[in-house]
Amino acid sequence: MKQQSLVTQFRMTLVYIILSTLFVSMITYAAAAFLFVNALNKKSINPENHYEQQIPKVENYVHEEGAAVLSSRGQDKLKELVHGEGFFYQAADHSGNIMHGTYEEQIFDSQQKLYQRLNTTFHIKGFYVHVIPVIDHMGKINGAVSLVYKLNLPAVNNSSLWVSIASLFLISAPFFYMILFTILFSRNYAKKISHPLQVLADGSRQIKMKNLDFDIDYHAENELGELCTAFNEMKEELKQSLSAQWKLEQDRVEITEALAHDLKSPLSIIKAYSEALSDDTDVDEEQKQYLTVIEENIEKSVLLVNQMQYTSELESSGAGVVKGPVNLLEFLQRKIYDYDLQARRKNIKMILEIRNDEIPDTVITDVNKLERILDNILSNSLQYTPAGGKIRIFVKKHNQFIVYRISDTGMGFTSMDMEKAFERFYRGDEARQSQGGHSGLGLYIVKQLSELLGGSVKIENLSSGGACVSFSHSWQ
């Protein structure tokens, strides 16, 4: 069926269900007919007209006894001849009045109606009624004996339970077979459809896990086969596209590393010569000022080169995490002390708030990466916080994470910053750039390192004004 379309397969499945239902139903009816005939021959069950076959025997008795059948003596004999859950009698006089019998509802309410029904069979309230005239020895009609009976298997077999069940089964057999074969064939049909769908789902999961070295092993000349073939082709195109993209990315990383490495040497030479001029040469104040500007910009350039080199290392090798124990309180106090001189030069107050009751005495983390995260955030805050401002570092423990919230009283983030601040080489708007050049790698590095340490990072603006950077890392 792999060579057939899904519509054709569905139609064939429907045909198989109908044909199988008809075939098995015919076998069932044939078997039931055979068993029924065999049971009749062995007298195991009575035929539907069993009670009707007893009528001649009762007629002979009525004709022989005559008017005596209306008496109590005739009552006992009639009860003996007419018995069964679906077989009754009623003896009535010539006016239709009930004398005795097992059928209690009066059949005739007048002599005329009784005479009209003599030696006839009619239907009343689900029963057949055969009327036998009672004639005395003078040939006069004294009344009638009415035989009331049913013509169906349960009635003639005293409502045998197995007969009722068999009859019900024969009626419902086609519906039962229809349901059964629908389940069987539809399951088979669904299996043929679900297999390629499962293969496609597995392929999608492989792509999600960035694995393109797999093949969709399903081939058929139908819609699903075409879909699998198209999926394979898409995967190959994606593989080629990503391979080219990955190669370009690798080339970019290598070029960045090479550029950063090559820039270090000339920058070191320039720095050495500028220091030599400052220390060993008589220069006037204006020249000294020029040398100071040169040295400051060399320091900035070296910092930018180091950031570029570190970013390349992150992207190329993942910068493996080396965790170890660290006293977080002592570490943060030392880090604040390192930036205290730079903050005091701008009259910026740095405030460290730690919930000591929540922070563990010892935290297990990569202290070098944590220090680099804080250096990037604090240096940005110091750069963009105006003189006389504040920088607040708030630290707390939340579940399995240490959460840091570093806020300042600067200009805050623009809407473009909020959208692109974590992108590589994003440098912000002109207003922020005018306060000092930067590589646009600071928050990008913060994001990469926070995720390496099992945490995350986000930025926001405070309602009172100023920027806020929050990041977290696991503490064990």
Automatic annotation (TrEMBL):
**Which Enzyme Commission number(s) are listed?**
2.7.13.3
> Which SMART domains would you find in this protein's record?
HAMP, HATPase_c, HisKA
Q: Which UniProt keywords apply?
A: Kinase, Membrane, Phosphoprotein, Transferase, Transmembrane, Transmembrane helix, Two-component regulatory system
Membrane topology type, per the record? Multi-pass membrane protein
Q: Which PROSITE patterns match?
A: HAMP (PS50885), HIS_KIN (PS50109)
Gene source species? Anaerostipes rhamnosivorans
Catalytic reactions on record: ATP + protein L-histidine = ADP + protein N-phospho-L-histidine
Q: Where in the cell is it found?
A: Membrane
Pfam families with a match to the protein in the record: HAMP, HATPase_c, HisKA
Keyword rRNA processing in annotation? no
**Any idea where the Histidine kinase domain is?**
258-476
GO cellular component terms attached to this protein's record: plasma membrane
- Is the Membrane keyword given for this protein? yes
**What are the HAMP domain coordinates in residue numbering?**
191-243
Official protein name in the record:
histidine kinase
The GO molecular function terms of this record are:
phosphorelay sensor kinase activity
So where does this one cross the membrane? Answer: 12-37, 161-185
